[in-house]
Amino acid sequence: MAKHKSYDYQYIQNSIIPTMHFQRSLPRLPVPELKLTCQRYLKAQQPLLSKNDYLRTKDVVENFEQNDGQLLQDLLKKKNDLNKNTSYITQDWFDMYLTERTSLPINYNPLLVFRQLDNAYNNNQLLRSTNLLISSLRFYKSLKANILEPEIFHINPKKSDTIQFRKLMKYLPESISWYGAYMYNAYPLDMSQYNSLFNNTRIPMANQDVLYNNTSGKHIVVMRRGHFYKFDVLDNQGNILNPQLLLSKIQYILNDDIAPSNHPIGILTTTERNNWADLRNYLIKLGNEESLRIIDDSLMMIALDDERPRPDPKACVEQYLHSDGTNRWFDKSFTLIVCADGTSGLNFEHSWGDGVAVLRYLQDISKDTTDFPRCHPENLNQVLFSADELDVKKLEFNLDEKIKCDIIKVKNEFKCKYDSLDVNYFEFFDVGRKTCKNFEISADSLMQLCFQLGYYKLHKKHVGTYESCSTAAFKQGRTETVRPCTMKTADFCYAVTSKNKPSNNDLVNMIKQCSVEHSKLVKEAAMGQGFDRHLYALRLLAKEKNLKIPSLFTDPAYSQINYNILSTSSLTSDHVWLGGFGPVVKDGFGIGYTIREDYSGAIITNYKEHSDGEKFRNAVTQSFNQIFDILKK
């Protein structure tokens, strides 16, 4: 057998437990009790409202709980009972993303940038992109063969993260396998989103986009300078092609010293979705259907950029969050982006899934390229294949004057959009989970408290705050919202900024109370016991059944708490350097933060015209230092 066809080369993992072994027996996302949802909602509203406004909202919520809410809750439970293989929110959540007409970059697509060592493997664009491609294909093949390790949260790894545990789980029937893991205090996570990682794209349609998946695709598409290149990465038997051949295919593209495209059609994926749907149909009328299908059908997409953004975090965020849009196809499930200096990362489309599957993919290929790089510096500059053997095809597009003008117009509009965005960041290299553990506080609660205090210092008020929490412990779980602005954080912000500060011991106790409260909210959200998704589903049901919209949803307080000035999310991993996204409202901040053992950092985005990101960043870092000074005393 040829070396490149060996089992070791073809698969990144060979799990004892089949990848999807636990899917069938995963518990379903619970529909929370109406009474508890109303209580949690009021608790989250309290720090945001004046006393009189809170009392008015309290009356509205109590009326809802006793009247309209009961009817809607019954309808939701009946609907949930008819859909045993999914959750009560799954389809609504897909529809929410796919009906949204706002453009994808900045508004929806997040970014992730790899942590990578400074060496010959990682600083060379050709080597880095080839090794990442091979590791991606190894991940893809393991996933497809059902031998990728299933995602399991181990409470006691010494007991459950073992060969013995895996062998036992393998022989348990799928219908009870989750319960077997539960007996070991191990919790398998939903992996339904993994099937959309590859061969997947979002296609613009009038009023509601569609997700398109073609599992037979064995080619990838590479973008460079706004041009598209297609080549096969698997042979007719589905084997990954040999490393030198894949490297030579990418080298062929990098050696094509072509000028940047004057009319890069990728820029059209940055525009409003109905407009893009119209423009895509027009492209098809011009005879470009086959080229578009090649992009849609591709197993994955790689963008080779000429920029060299390292070591500047701000430059990296701008490159991976939006760039100038000319060398991107933002509709693809994800794009692997490798810059001229070897900096690498992802930009991913959000409707098909959340950070869970993307993060796992990033971690696995990051580790694989570090531990088992398949191409080496000595492989460079070896000419072993003719152009015919490489079989790299540049995609051509028929464009008329109208579409050329449209491309220029969209390009200028997108430039205005990303020029209006500001990016700030902070990093602390000596503070992380370890330090927080020593102080007996949650690292996540500490970061959230810093965001609350930073904003309060500038504006002397509290605002709607969103923290994303995965509900992957449940079948087809997506996310729930944690509301980090609580009465505990509000009281601390007031106390620490008042002239008559409490004693240091009292402030330490307040910080610990904030941590306890926040950890409780995170745990509730992870267990499907938040209030946001539940209320969202009830509101949609009222609309769907043509019922009068309950006053809870027309109450200004409901709009206010859902106007998330502070939109936050953490994607914490030893393999991630940067993670971020755009603000979700015009005067808000998008805060992507990372916490490791001895590191805390955040990327903060905002629109320059409506808010001051540098001031907010400074207020947050001052708050960070102030809180640690209190804890150290």
UniProtKB/TrEMBL annotation:
Metabolic or biological pathway: Lipid metabolism; fatty acid beta-oxidation
Domain of life the protein comes from: Eukaryota
Substrates-to-products reaction catalysed: 4,8-dimethylnonanoyl-CoA + (R)-carnitine = O-4,8-dimethylnonanoyl-(R)-carnitine + CoA
Domain Choline/carnitine acyltransferase: 29-621
InterPro entries attached to this UniProt entry: Carn_acyl_trans, Carn_acyl_trans_N, CAT-like_dom_sf, Cho/carn_acyl_trans, Cho/carn_acyl_trans_2
GO BP of this protein: fatty acid beta-oxidation
Active site: H350
Similarity-based family: Belongs to the carnitine/choline acetyltransferase family.
PANTHER family referenced in this protein's UniProt entry, alphabetically: CARNITINE O-ACYLTRANSFERASE, CARNITINE O-PALMITOYLTRANSFERASE 2, MITOCHONDRIAL
Protein name as it appears in the record: Carnitine O-palmitoyltransferase 2, mitochondrial
Organism, scientific name: Aphis craccivora (Cowpea aphid)
